[in-house]
Automatic annotation (TrEMBL):
GO terms for biological process: DNA integration; DNA recombination. The lineage of its organism: Bacteria, Pseudomonadati, Pseudomonadota, Gammaproteobacteria, Enterobacterales. Belongs to the 'phage' integrase family. GO terms for molecular function: DNA binding. It comes from the Bacteria. The keyword Transcription does not apply. This is Uncharacterized protein. Keywords: DNA integration, DNA recombination. InterPro entries: DNA_brk_join_enz, Integrase-like_cat_sf, Phage_Integrase. The keyword Ribosomal protein does not apply.
Length: 291
């Protein structure tokens, strides 16, 4: 069965267009699990056999996460063979299904042995009380980094979204457009710009667009300036300030391009652009007042 599974790995790689690294991992996983696979389909359909072999590997010094990952790799190949309805000489589809269930059951059991650590909360490095100090630090940066961080704070943008901006991002309808290829959730972002601030935003966008700013360079510039906050803290600060001002919740979440819970997109045919524009107006005005 070992050689047949290796053939299936190669066929799956061609059909699904897998990365070279993934192919290597799957081939290695098949060879590593040879002691179980060589016992035949009937034995490989018993989850306890997989667990006992995994325990032996772990006792020999292999990490539980590695063992589970190897079993998951082989399970992925077997699942593909079943779903693609490919004739597999060593076993009938029903036997393959039982073998797949046994591997998945064993993988879950092994997963309980993996050391897990509580996720640490990641509060912002600056509080809303330090807003004025943050603005002054932004203004102390040299261009084009100053305009870049201004956009992050005033619009709640992610660093990757901001670095993709240029003069062309401001479309004729007076809205800022960020395509889905650069947003985290792969969804287009369209923000209504307050009319009176369009010339100012055009100026900031022009500065950003004329310079090919790299993320690492931006982070390094902020760090070397002796500033304790980082790019994503501007997004958190924008959200906190909006909440304090009492901005519309849905409008703020749409500005941040978050997935809004309990509101499927099919029910949100027209975003509340007026509320979004109001929130952005207040954000820009608050920044300019402190500046």
């Amino acid at each position: 069965m070992l050689s047949d599974l290796l053939v299936m790995v190669d066929r799956r790689a061609q059909a699904v267009n897998l990365r070279e690294k993934t192919i290597i991992n799957e081939r290695h996983a098949v060879r590593m699990l040879e002691p179980v696979l060589s016992l035949g389909v009937r034995a490989a359909s018993v989850s306890d056999i997989w667990v006992r072999y995994a325990d032996r590997c772990i006792d020999d010094g292999l990490a539980a996460s590695t063992v589970r990952q190897r079993i998951d790799c082989v399970a992925a190949v077997v699942a593909w063979v079943i779903h693609a309805d490919i004739k597999f000489k060593p076993a009938a589809p029903g036997s393959l299904g039982r073998m797949l269930d046994a591997m998945r059951t064993a993988a879950r059991a092994i997963g309980k042995r993996i050391k897990r650590y509580k996720a640490l909360s990641k509060p912002a490095r600056v509080s809303v009380d330090e807003y004025a100090a943050v603005v002054h630090e932004i203004e102390s940066l040299r261009e084009p980094y100053r305009s870049t961080v201004r956009m992050m704070l005033c619009f709640g943008l992610r660093a990757s979204e901001t670095l993709s901006l240029s003069s062309k991002s401001l479309i004729s309808s007076g809205r800022l457009f960020i395509p889905d290829r650069v947003t985290k959730n792969h969804s287009d972002l369209l923000l209504p710009i307050p009319i009176k601030y369009i010339p100012l935003i055009e100026q900031w966008l022009s500065v950003i667009g004329e310079s090919e700013i790299k993320y690492n360079t931006l982070v390094t510039t902020i760090s070397r300036a002796g500033i304790k906050w980082r790019c994503h803290d501007m997004r958190k600060l924008f959200r906190t300030c909006a909440a304090i001002r009492g901005e519309d919740y849905l409008a703020t979440e749409l500005i941040l391009n978050h997935a809004v819970k309990d509101v499927p997109s099919v029910y949100l045919q027209t975003p509340p652009y007026s509320a979004m524009r109001k929130a952005l107006t207040n954000s820009i005005e608050e920044y300019l007042q402190v500046k």
